[in-house]
Design goal:
Blueprint (H helix, E strand, L loop, with lengths): L8 H4 L2 H11 L4 H5 L5 E4 L14 E16 L13 E11 L2 E8 L13 E11 L2 E5 L2 E4 L7 H9 L2 E4 L8 H14 L9 H7 L4 H9 L4 H32 L10 H9 L6 H14 L6 E6 L5 H14 L3 E5 L3 H15 L16 E5 L5 H13 L2 E6 L13 E7 L6 H8 L7 E6 L5 H7 L4 E5 L9 E7 L3 H16 L3 E5 L22 H10 L7 E4 L5 H12 L5 E4 L12 E6 L7 H8 L9 E7 L6 H11 L3 H11 L2 H4 L4 H5 L11 H17 L7 H14 L7
Parallel strand pairs: 4-6, 9-14, 9-15, 10-12, 10-13, 11-12, 13-14, 16-21, 17-19, 17-20, 18-19, 20-21
Antiparallel strand pairs: 1-8, 2-3, 2-5, 3-4, 5-6, 5-7
The structure holds adenosine-5'-diphosphate (ADP) and magnesium ion.
C-alpha cells in the first residue's frame, strides 16, 4: 500500500490510537497528524528544571525515580468513605538532579510501585499542584524508559529526540503516544510532495516539505527547528496571501459603472462647506474620486481615528455618484448611528437634500433613512424612493439588506465601522446592484499593517492621520473609585461643565434591571449598571440636572428620541452603555465619566472618549476604577490616559491580547490554516509573501503550473468567507 498525506490513520495505526486521534483531536489523515505540531519542546538539561515549575502549569518532565512509598490514606471527609474510608496512597519522589525533586501521587494504584522503582528514568506529565509546601503531580501520565538505560540522556534522546516535542494532548492520548504515532507516520511518508513552488523555495533557501515536517516533530537541533518553522510559516503565509491577491485580481477584472469626478451636486456642496478639508481628507478624497471614475469596482478601506472626519470623505464620494445618476447606500452598525448619520448628512446638505420639493436646487437629491424598526407604513414611501431612484442617498442598518429593498441604480456602498459587519451582509447588498458597486469601508479602529494585509487583504487602504483644525484636546485621568474626595470632585466637574452650558456622558459596562449578572464575575461584584447608576445620580450627586438613559435594550423610537433630545441640548447628562461607543457626534458634550473603566478594552475606551472634545471646548474624560495601582488593569487605564494616539493604543491593545483573539470571532476557521504564523510577529514573512504571491499570480493567474500549491489555495479560498473577511 502506498501511504500519502491523504491516507486515513486507521489504515496505518492501531485502531485504539487512530480512534483517540480522531475523537480527541479531530485528526483523521496522515496529513492531519503531521500538521498537529508540538506546541513546545522540552530540552535535555533544561527540560527537567524541576526548580522552575509553576503551580498550575501543565508540564512534561524527564526524571529518575528516587523513592516510592506506600501510605494509607484516610480522607478527611466525603470521598472514599463509602469504600471503607481508606485508600492507598503511593508517593513517588522523582528528581532530575540532586535536590531538584518532585512528588508524584497515585491513589489506589499501589501496583504501580512495581514499575516505579528507584533508579528508573521516565517522562512524567501532569498539572503541577502544591501540597504542604511541596510541588507535586497528582496521578500523572508517564512513560518509562528502557530499564537498562545506562545513560538516561541518550535513552531520552532516542525516545524523543534532543528536543522533546510536547503536543497538545488529551487525557486518553498523552503527548508521547502522539509522538510515537507521528514517528510511525513520518516513516511511512518520508517525502510528501512539496506544495511550494520549487523555484521560490530554492531562491528563499527554504527546507523541503518532508524535511520541514520531520524537523518540526523531531528536531535535530534548534537550528533545524527554526528552519522548519520558517518554511512552514512561509507556506501558510503564501497560501493566504495568494488567496487574497487572486481575489483582488479577479475583482479588478469585474465591471463597475464609472462615475466621473466632480458633478453639479458635489460642486454645490463643496461651495457651501463651512470649513476647509484637512490635507488628509483632500488626498484620500482625490484617491477615491479617481477610483469611482474607473470602470472597475473600488474596494477601499478608510482608517481614521475618531473624529478625523471620515463621514465627510464618504459624503463627497456619495455625491460624486449621485451627481451622475447613481445611488449610494451608507450602512451603519446601529440604529442610533444610522439615525445620526441621516440627521447630520441631511443637515450638511441643507436644501441639496430636498430633491423634488418646491424651491430646491435642480441638482438636489433625497436622503432616506431605512432601519429595522420602521413600520410598514413608514417604509413604503422610502422603499419607493429607493426603487425609483429619487433617493440618491439611502442610510440604514442591516435592514437595507432585506429582500424587499430594491435600488434603481446602486453605485456605491459605504460601510461605517466595518468590524460590526459580516461579509455576507456586504455581499447581500452588493447583489442588489446590476454591476458590482464601488465599496468604501470605514473604520476608526486602527488595524496594524499585517492584520490589515490579511483580514482586509483584498482592500486598498487609506488613512486619515490628522484631526481637523480647531479640535480641542481631551484630558484623561484615572480616578480611584474608593476615594471619596476624588469621586466628589468627579461629579463636581460634571456639574461645572453643565453649568457652563455643556453636556456630559456617564458610561457603565452593564444595562442592569433583569439582565443576568456577568457569569464570569465569580465572587466579584457585578459591573455597574446604567439603570442603577442613573437613579443614584438623580437622587444624589447630579440631583437637579436633566438626565437621560440610553442602552441597547430600549426600543428604536426611544433611542432615537433620547439621542435627539441630547443632541438638541435638552438632556444635560446621558447615562449610557457602549451604544455610544462609535460615531456618536454631539459637539457640545465635553465631559465623560466611565465607571468600572477597567471592564473596557483599550481601544474601546479610546473610542468612547472620542465622543467628547468634538467641539471647540476642551474635552475631559475620567476613568473611574477600583483597579489598584501596578495591576495590569490599572496600567491599561494609565496607558489610555497617557496618549490620545489611537494607533499607538491599538498596537498596545493587540500586544496584550493573545494571538487567537486578534481576529476575534474570525479566527476559528483560520486556525486550521494558520498554525505557526503569527499575525503580530511575522510581519516580514507576511509582507514578503505578499510580494511573492503577487508575482506568482501575475505570471500564472490560475496557478496551472503549480497544482499542489493551487490545491491549498483553493482549499483556503473555499473556507475564507468564514474568516478572512468577517472582521
Ligand atoms: P469620524 O471620523 O469619527 O467618523 P466624523 O466624520 O463624525 O468623524 O467627524 C467629526 C466632526 O468633525 C463632525 O462634526 C464633522 O462635521 C467635523 N469635520 C469633519 N471634517 C472637518 C474639517 N475638515 N474641519 C472641521 N471640522 C470637520
Ligand atoms: Mg464616524
Amino acid at each position: 500500500m502506498t501511504v500519502g498525506l491523504e491516507t486515513r490513520l486507521r489504515e496505518v495505526l492501531g485502531k485504539k490510537t487512530a480512534d483517540a486521534l480522531a475523537d480527541g483531536l479531530g485528526l483523521d489523515t496522515a496529513g492531519d497528524l503531521l500538521g498537529h505540531y508540538p506546541f513546545r519542546y522540552a530540552q535535555r538539561g533544561e527540560r527537567t528544571d524541576l526548580a522552575s515549575l509553576g503551580i498550575g502549569d501543565d508540564v512534561t518532565v524527564a526524571a529518575q525515580v528516587r523513592a516510592a512509598v506506600k501510605k494509607t490514606f484516610t480522607p478527611r471527609s466525603g470521598k472514599g468513605r463509602g469504600r471503607g474510608g481508606r485508600g492507598d496512597l503511593l508517593e513517588v519522589v522523582v528528581a532530575d538532579e540532586p535536590g531538584r525533586s518532585l512528588t508524584l501521587t497515585f491513589f489506589n494504584q499501589g501496583w504501580r510501585a512495581k514499575e516505579l522503582v528507584a533508579g528508573r528514568w521516565g517522562l512524567f506529565a501532569g498539572k503541577v499542584a502544591q501540597f504542604r509546601g511541596r510541588l507535586q503531580l497528582n496521578s500523572p501520565q508517564y512513560q518509562l524508559l528502557a530499564e537498562d538505560a545506562a545513560d538516561p540522556g541518550s535513552a531520552i534522546e532516542e525516545f524523543a529526540g534532543t528536543l522533546i516535542p510536547v503536543y497538545p494532548a488529551t487525557a486518553e492520548l498523552p503527548t508521547w503516544n502522539i509522538a510515537k504515532a507521528v514517528h510511525t507516520v513520518l516513516g511511512l511518508v518520508p517525502s510528501p510532495p512539496d506544495p511550494l513552488p520549487a523555484s521560490l523555495r530554492e531562491r528563499l533557501g527554504l527546507l523541503d516539505y518532508g524535511t520541514a515536517l520531520r524537523q518540526i516533530h523531531r528536531p535535530d537541533s534548534h537550528e533545524f527547528l527554526g528552519a522548519a518553522k520558517k518554511r512552514l510559516k512561509w507556506q501558510e503565509a503564501l497560501v493566504m496571501q495568494t488567496v487574497l491577491v487572486r481575489r483582488k485580481a479577479e475583482s479588478a477584472g469585474e465591471a463597475a459603472d464609472p462615475y466621473p469626478e466632480g458633478g453639479a451636486i458635489l460642486d454645490a456642496f463643496e461651495a457651501r462647506l463651512p470649513f476647509e478639508l484637512t490635507a488628509g481628507q483632500r488626498q484620500v478624497g482625490a484617491e477615491i474620486a479617481a477610483e469611482l471614475a474607473r470602470e472597475h469596482p473600488m474596494h477601499r478601506l478608510l482608517q481614521g481615528d475618531v473624529g478625523s472626519g471620515k463621514t465627510l470623505v464618504a459624503l463627497r464620494a456619495m455625491l460624486q455618484v449621485v451627481a451622475h445618476g447613481g445611488q449610494a447606500a451608507l450602512l451603519a452598525p446601529t440604529e442610533v448611528l444610522a439615525a445620526q448619520h441621516h440627521r447630520s448628512i441631511a443637515e450638511m446638505l441643507g436644501d441639496l437634500a430636498q430633491g423634488g420639493q418646491l424651491g430646491a436646487p435642480a441638482e438636489a437629491t433625497r436622503v432616506e433613512l431605512l432601519t429595522g424598526s420602521a413600520t410598514a407604513a413608514q417604509r413604503r414611501p422610502v422603499l419607493d424612493a429607493v426603487k425609483t431612484g429619487t433617493a440618491g442617498i439611502v442610510i440604514g442598518t442591516h435592514a437595507l439588506l432585506y429582500d424587499g429593498v430594491e435600488f434603481a441604480n446602486l453605485g456605491l456602498v459605504v460601510v461605517d465601522e466595518q468590524h460590526r459587519f459580516g461579509v455576507e451582509q456586504r455581499d447581500a447588498l452588493r447583489a442588489k446592484a446590476k454591476h458590482t458597486p464601488h465599496t468604501l469601508v470605514m473604520t476608526a479602529t486602527p488595524i496594524p499593517r499585517t492584520v490589515a494585509m490579511t483580514v482586509y487583504g483584498d482592500l486598498e487602504t487609506s488613512r486619515l492621520t490628522e484631526l481637523p483644525a480647531g479640535r480641542s484636546p481631551i484630558a484623561t485621568h484615572v480616578v480611584p473609585y474608593g476615594d471619596g474626595r476624588w469621586m466628589q470632585r468627579t461629579w463636581t466637574r460634571v456639574r461645572e461643565e453643565v453649568a457652563a452650558g455643556r453636556q456630559a456622558y456617564v458610561v457603565c459596562p452593564r444595562v442592569g434591571g433583569d439582565d443576568q449578572d456577568d457569569p464570569n464575575a465569580g465572587d466579584k461584584r457585578p459591573p455597574l449598571a446604567v439603570t442603577d447608576i442613573i437613579e443614584e445620580l438623580r437622587g444624589n450627586q447630579l440631583h437637579g440636572l436633566r438626565l437621560g438613559l440610553l442602552h441597547g435594550r430600549l426600543d428604536a423610537d426611544e433611542k432615537d428620541r433620547v439621542m435627539r433630545a441630547y443632541a438638541a441640548g435638552d438632556i444635560d447628562v446621558l447615562v449610557a452603555t457602549t451604544v455610544i461607543e462609535v460615531g456618536v457626534n454631539v459637539p457640545n458634550a465635553t465631559a465623560m465619566v466611565v465607571l468600572d473603566a477597567e471592564r473596557f478594552g483599550i481601544s474601546q475606551l479610546h473610542q468612547l472618549r472620542g465622543r467628547v472634545g468634538r467641539g471647540t471646548h476642551p474635552g475631559l474624560c475620567l476613568l473611574v476604577s477600583e483597579a489598584m495601582e501596578g495591576t495590569p488593569s490599572r496600567e491599561r487605564l494609565d496607558a489610555v490616559a497617557s496618549t490620545t494616539d489611537g494607533f499607538a493604543l491599538a498596537e498596545l491593545d493587540l500586544e496584550q491580547r493573545r494571538e487567537g483573539d486578534v481576529l476575534g470571532a474570525a479566527q476559528s476557521g483560520m486556525k486550521s490554516h494558520v498554525k505557526l504564523l503569527s499575525l503580530l510577529k511575522d510581519v516580514d514573512i507576511i509582507a514578503a509573501s505578499r510580494t511573492e504571491a503577487a508575482a506568482l499570480i501575475d505570471a500564472d493567474p490560475e496557478l496551472k503550473r503549480e497544482p499542489a500549491f493551487a490545491a491549498l489555495v483553493d482549499d483556503l479560498a473555499a473556507d475564507r468567507g468564514e474568516f478572512l473577511e468577517k472582521g
